[in-house]
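User: For my dataset I need records formatted as: sequence, then structure tokens, nothing else. Please produce one.
Assistant:
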Amino acid sequence: MTVVVVTGGTRGIGQGLVRSFARLGADVAYCGRHVTEAPDGILAVTADVTVREDVRKLWDATVDRFGRVDIWVNNAGLSTSRRPLWELPPAEIDAVVGVNLGGTLQASAVVLEAMLAQGHGALWNMEGLGSTGQIVAGLTPYGATKRGLTYATLAMAKELKGTPVKACLLSPGMVVTDLLTRDYEPAELENAKKIFTILADRVETVTPWLAERVLKGTRNGGRVAWLTNRKAAYRFATAAFHNRDPFS
């Protein structure tokens, strides 16, 4: 069996990935800052991805349970309130940058060293708004971290060239979670939903597809993306003929 670790697996996309990998027959471990008892056969570990010792604890617990780690998905992430940068408290900015970018870098450093030592592995980093240049007012810190994460992953891939370890990008697109709808006023949310109903998808729609593609693998530095430009263009062109409601 393939052994998969998902960080931030307690809710949202991370939780969906954990369940999807398990349904596809993988041995799965996940972490969160606050975890409850995991389903049968799944390993849950309390860990903070910004702390290298916690990441090593998660790696070691997975190896102790399943013998190795084949795939690691850095999914853990936060978003600030949807407000202009100058209105955000310093602690909120620090938390988002610390987890989304700092945590991914710290975890990746631990994981890549361990994968190189064991002689194989694939590290996947989760993209998001900003990764491919999208700019949205009110989400400056979040978008900046995701933009930086894409660069970091491609740089890791370059550093891994010629080794049996890969660094790859996973792009879920627009998914209906609390991060998507956070801090909208009711009228603003109704306007935003005009786009969401065209482009957004439910966790249970996206994560099985992502999990299957991750298990199949891709080249070092490759990207697996659910919402491609072509798919988005098709949805806009045919929106009048479809009654999509990802919120139902």
